[in-house]
């Protein structure tokens, strides 16, 4: 008999220790070290190789025939764009996002379009008809919620117009009951809101714990793969924005999408962080309204001001959100400081990046900023995290210093180095093409070579 010893291991990364500690020594996560039984070293010596079953022998890759992956459109163009064309039969999709950002509202809209007679099912043709679908009818959808009652979901469905006979609701927190609903309803799409609220009676621990999340996710994914039914799981996020629960959850699913947006703005972004069936650099744009959430196929004008005449301190740039080029206006205000330590206030841009640009302007261009308050912001609440916006920020600050507006047909994008050089950025031709489509005639980029030359070409 193999002798077992007591050990502790981290549920996130697998790090092991001989005694319990509150914080993992490898991934530095708190509360993830749990006790588990570990077999002795002699276990490895007793494990013997087993012959593979008939029909499952390893074969050369050239002899295997690849199966074509068919996507089922959801009826929401921006969501299909992020997913790579729609949902795949048997796929497990994880939606994450902060509370109140609109995850449940978006997924209820997806469920209603699946269940609507002649909705997204008819748009994809007869090949997309799933279990429970009849001629002229929508496909059955099971929406299982552990956070809201069926009455609360019904009220939101009335507001968004999502009342269809093929949409089934269940308010459950028990995993076995949810699996029973899947067997009884036989849906073409399953939505679970959320995976942290379900619990299995066969696993110790409360709902939302690492062990429970692993068991719940694994059971739902097995059901999805076995039935060929796509399942969408909603996941909570921690303070730092990552998905709550064990990291294994993101490895188990096929697609991970993050829904983000500022509560003070109606704009929402859906980003694909992992996708086994499509690209991982796509971004979908949505807008939260009083009747639910609607897609924004062309968000080009959302981040530009509506001023009739040019205003000093503003400069347009083109940011890349995934593979989509979005024009964004950067605004700057420079005022005499009334305190010994001038203020540097930013919104939508990286504060450390702005501080570096101001230092370059003062050292390489001769701008006087050490006794000035500087405010930099973006229009529409969009966040610019890429260095391509450096040149636009610099020109907006220079325009605000001299109170001289830039030409309304000018757009700038380029990375600024500490030496004052303007470096080229990725997708420069795509940025220039989007700017030309919107009517911008003049584009300042890496061809300017230096910030000082860009300032002169902009007329500042």
TrEMBL record:
Positions contributing to ATP binding: 97-104
PROSITE patterns: RECA_2
Pfam families noted in UniProt: AAA_25 (PF13481), Zn_ribbon_LapB (PF18073)
Domain of life according to the entry: Bacteria
GO CC annotation, single: cytosol
Short sequence motif named RadA KNRFG motif, residue ranges: 274-278
Any GO molecular function: zinc ion binding
GO terms (BP aspect): recombinational repair
Record's signal peptide: none
CDD domains: RadA_SMS_N
Function, as annotated: Plays a role in repairing double-strand DNA breaks, probably involving stabilizing or processing branched DNA or blocked replication forks.
HAMAP family referenced in this protein's UniProt entry, alphabetically: RadA_bact
Entry's free-text remark on domains: The middle region has homology to RecA with ATPase motifs including the RadA KNRFG motif, while the C-terminus is homologous to Lon protease.
Family designation: Belongs to the RecA family. RadA subfamily.
Protein's UniProt name: DNA repair protein RadA
Species of origin: Leucobacter massiliensis
Taxonomic classification: Bacteria, Bacillati, Actinomycetota, Actinomycetes, Micrococcales
Gene field: radA
């Amino acid at each position: 008999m193999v002798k077992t010893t007591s050990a502790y291991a981290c549920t996130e990364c697998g790090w092991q220790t001989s005694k319990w500690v509150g914080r993992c020594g490898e991934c530095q996560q708190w509360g993830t070290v749990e006790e588990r039984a570990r077999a002795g070293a002699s276990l490895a010596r007793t494990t013997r190789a087993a012959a593979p079953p008939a029909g499952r022998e390893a074969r050369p890759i050239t002899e295997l025939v690849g199966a074509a992956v068919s996507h089922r459109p959801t009826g929401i163009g921006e969501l299909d764009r992020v997913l790579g064309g729609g949902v795949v039969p048997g796929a497990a999709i994880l939606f994450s996002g902060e509370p109140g950002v609109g995850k449940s509202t978006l997924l209820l809209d997806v469920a209603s379009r699946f269940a609507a007679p002649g909705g997204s099912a008819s748009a994809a043709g007869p090949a997309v008809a799933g279990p429970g679908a009849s001629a002229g009818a929508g496909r059955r959808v099971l929406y299982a919620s552990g956070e809201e009652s069926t009455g609360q979901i019904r009220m939101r469905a009335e507001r968004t117009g999502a009342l269809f006979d093929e949409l089934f609701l269940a308010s459950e927190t028990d995993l076995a009951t949810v699996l029973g609903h899947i067997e009884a309803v036989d849906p073409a799409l399953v939505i679970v809101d959320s995976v942290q609220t379900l619990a299995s009676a066969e696993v110790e621990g409360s709902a939302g714990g690492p062990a429970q999340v692993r068991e719940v996710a694994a059971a739902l994914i097995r059901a999805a793969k076995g039935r060929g039914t796509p399942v969408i799981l909603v996941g909570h996020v921690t303070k730092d924005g990552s998905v709550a629960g064990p990291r294994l959850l993101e490895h188990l699913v096929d697609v991970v999408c993050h829904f983000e947006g500022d509560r003070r703005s109606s704009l929402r972004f859906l980003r694909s962080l992992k996708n086994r069936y499509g690209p991982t650099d796509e971004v979908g744009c949505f807008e939260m309204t009083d009747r639910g959430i609607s897609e924004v196929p062309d968000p080009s004008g959302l981040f530009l001001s509506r001023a009739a005449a040019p205003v000093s301190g503003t400069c347009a740039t083109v940011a890349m959100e995934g593979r989509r080029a979005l024009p964004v206006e950067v605004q700057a205000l420079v005022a005499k400081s009334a305190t010994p330590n001038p203020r540097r206030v930013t919104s939508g841009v990286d504060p450390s990046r702005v501080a570096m640009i101001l230092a370059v302007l003062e050292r390489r261009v001769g701008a006087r900023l050490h006794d000035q308050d500087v405010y930099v912001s973006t229009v529409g609440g969009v966040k610019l995290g890429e260095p391509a916006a450096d040149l636009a920020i610099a020109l907006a600050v220079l325009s605000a210093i001299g109170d001289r507006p830039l030409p309304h047909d000018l757009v700038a994008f380029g990375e600024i180095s500490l030496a004052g050089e303007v470096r080229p950025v990725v997708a420069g031709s795509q940025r220039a093409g989007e700017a030309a489509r919107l009517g911008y005639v003049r584009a300042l980029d890496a061809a300017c070579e230096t910030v000082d030359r860009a300032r002169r070409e902009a007329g500042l």
